[in-house]
Design goal:
Blueprint: H1 20-33, E1 37-39, E2 45-47, E3 55-60, E4 62-64, E5 76-78, E6 83-89, E7 95-104, E8 110-115, E9 125-130, E10 136-140, H2 150-155
Antiparallel strand pairs: 1-2, 3-8, 4-5, 6-7, 6-9, 9-10
């Protein structure tokens, strides 16, 4: 019988090394996780602060006087350059406090206001448009899009 002069090597588990792709991904993740703030030109670090986006209230001020067409069957037209104010009212319809926000409608009668941070949509928010001849049109604000029309004035 022939003898083998080779030494038998024990089979120990070798630790698996990360593939180059896995290693790159791991290093990238570690580098990104260490970058939490912005660095200014002078080397100072500023942590980013999340700023809540302002809620916009927009719509159109529509008044009688337009031509009745298939596209405009009720004959309303946009009221341009009209002051629009947002305020709160009590249960009797009286204004509570100061005007919360105001703006002016554009040439098409569209307006845009920003809801104050400490105010939520509710049935006590009213938008008022001051029309010609000291007339007013109002609408209750319960959504981000609120048009002011003769019907909303009647309801308000």
């Amino acid at each position: 019988m022939r003898t083998n002069n080779y030494k038998r090597v024990s089979k120990k588990a070798h630790p698996k090394l990360l593939s180059p792709v896995s290693l790159c991904l791991l290093l990238s993740a570690l580098l990104v996780s260490g970058c939490e703030g912005d660095v200014e030109a002078d080397g100072d670090s500023n942590d980013s602060v999340a700023v809540a986006a302002k809620v916009e209230i927009s719509g159109a001020i529509l008044i009688p006087g337009g031509t009745v067409t298939a596209e405009n069957p009720i004959g309303l037209q946009g009221a341009a350059a009209v002051t629009v104010s947002l305020y709160q009212i009590d249960d009797d319809g009286n204004i509570i406090g100061d005007v919360l926000e105001s703006g002016t409608s554009n040439a098409s009668g569209n307006y845009l206001l920003l809801l104050p941070d400490d105010v939520e949509f509710s049935s006590d928010l009213v938008i008022e448009a001051q029309l010609e001849n000291n007339e007013f049109a109002r609408a209750i604000v319960i959504d981000e899009t609120t048009d002011i029309t003769p019907i909303t004035e009647y309801i308000t």
